[in-house]
Write a structure and sequence with these properties.
Among the domains are: 120 residues, ATPase, nucleotide binding domain (Nucleotidyltransferase, domain 5); 78 residues, Transcription Termination Factor Rho, Rna-binding Domain, Chain A, Domain 1 (Orthogonal Bundle). The chain is 48% helix and 19% strand. The protein is built from 14 helices and 10 strands. Strands 3-2-1-4-5 form a 5-stranded mixed β-sheet, with helices on both faces.
Length: 292
Amino acid sequence: MDYQKEKILPYIWLMASVLIAESGSTKTDWCLVRPGQKPFMAKTPGINPYLQTAAEINQLLHTELKLEYKPEQLFFYGAGAGNTEKQAELKKILEAFFEIKKVEVKSDLMAACRGLCGREKGVVAILGTGSNSCYYDGKSIKSSMPSLGYVAGDEGSGNHMGKRVLQYYAYKTFDDELRLAFESAYGNDIAAIVNNIYKKPFANRYLASFTRLLIDNRGHYMVENIIEDSISEFFHRHILKYRESWKHPIHFTGTVAYEFRDVISDICAQNELVLGTIERSPLAGLINYHEQ
């Protein structure tokens, strides 16, 4: 963004109603900001162009999103919106649905950068249903590790941990306490679970749902092992690959990061890294970013 645009952006915002959307694979948070009015908040299921067709996204918007006022501008940040092709697809869908032309589509990683770092430098990580990371120089993403998705990657994510939970149960690694906790929450029909993974949509969301067992049973040594192993793998495959990790704070966002922030803090201390902020969602920071 050049200096002139930087100077006029706040005035655009003061004169227009602006909708900000921050979307992961599981949920989307929407915030409609209007001059002199309290922001209007809404929540819908996640939007991901890799996992949903244009028709499915359109249907979701029509059935799930109820706004009291029509926005004049839209900033949409989403999982699966990291390349120009998918950004163009989403932009076309959103322009048609909202009947506006002022639509900007960026990745969920850029949402994390702007929401957590603002205009400061930092290493940024997402640990939610999936995972991702980058080095952000205060303006743009300068370097990032490849995201291999929920099948081949997503270390440290809910999907990654959920797989471990399911494996520990299915392969009879859990003790009786955790076995009974698993069956109470998810049943004991492995065939049905496998069917949900391979035959139904959104396998990543389904696998991530098993992370609830870890949240509800903190302190058990097997639970702590799964959490620590998964997040440690994320650090070794991603965070420690950035030279900037020892020069700038490391910020985290996502439900998994927030729930297991104590583990993240310990791993940062062990590696002599400076921990920045850990937020469940970057939305509040995004609002602040665009208002400045």
